[in-house]
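Section 3.1 - Work completed
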Amino acid sequence: MKEPRGLLKFRVTGSKFQIIILASLCLAFGGARGASAQGRARARAKGHGSVVVTERGRAHTLNLSKQIDAAHIEDASVLFLTRRGGFVYLVLTVCGLSRFPPGDRQCGAGIECNLVWLKLDGRWRALDSKSERYESCWAPITSEEGPKVVGKLLTLVYEDLRENLRHEVTYDDDSPERGLKSETRPLPEQNR
């Protein structure tokens, strides 16, 4: 029988070293995505202020117009989706246009991005929410890296250049009910 081209072949001989290498390769190429919701939930923009989150084969439309600063959503991503105690905890990044339709006036090509935490009931109705704007043409707010996820922890550092403040936001998926935690401190003098 002819084998399909392009497949990697591994021969497991029982060596602990070889098994560790194989497990590492699986992790590196997306074989295990348990900590991240990206493998089991997807988000897409729907109109000006809504996103559709698809999880377990079901699509849920969420109106985020009160949690976001974009005039029109262009991109949305699920960072965490956790079910606990009858609730659904959802963390999303949502980015879109500062002005809609875009134009050649102030912020006509600008971007607004928010990190959004939602506590939803079993029917996906929002019971609580928190939002952090981390990119903005209007404010001016900027982040060098955006949200970073390592395992079950999220960190986000952004600077509010108008207020001369640095914000450090954290989220722990082991305690999703705590939501986003934010600390604020003055920007160092060299950044002003």
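Second construct:
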Amino acid sequence: MSRRNSKTVQRGSTRMGIGPGAFLGPLARILNVSGYHPRALQREFAAICRTLSVPKRASEPQRLGYFDDLSHVLARWHADQDYVDADGRPVPLPLEGPAPSLKDLVSRALPPVEPLEAIQGLLELKGIRRRGKRFLPTERYLALNRLPDAVRLHGLMTVLGILRTVEHNITARPGKRLLDRFAINPSFPIRALPRFHRKLKRQATEVLWRFDADMRREETRLQGQPVTRLCVGLYAFEDPPVTGKGSRINRGRRRGSSKQGS
């Protein structure tokens, strides 16, 4: 498989030049079109900023999306015919040398990224492991919660993506809107949350793997064409947030517990 022609590749702006305006712009425009006055937004944001501390480290906009993109290496390793055995299992790869090798795989999956940098990131996230002089993927997905930086940058990517989709859908014609669908239950029992979240994560992984396979097929079929970053995500929201808040929580409404006087 040949590398994509760099002259025809059009990367999104999520890799470089991302400043606060990339996040605040869509949010401000969403609030504005929803009825919030610009001066009110300015006052509120200034008041919020006065409560914040100076960060210990500067932002790294050029790394936004870096950790998320590493998962594409594992996806290709589990699916590309050059990197699986007769049973469809990932084959152990040497670091370098004649293809197939780990550096060759990274170069195919992430052409703009330095292979050794990506390999180091995968090792830090425990996405790959050594077997003698070769490497194997630990799982077919990448757990970003193993590195604080990865969690933080993934969170920013998620916020940025959701804001852009919401802003687009507010003004786009129905046939041009991006996916934005929810299943909402306003009276879900808090006691059932742990079991439900476990089931949701398990089934979501299976669904996303199927969509990821579809995206990889299109990537191969239209190789050499201009590209953008496409992300399909499934998210759960609690209102108010309960999971991870400890044992003493506000249980809110209880169905059937209220009594009406006559």
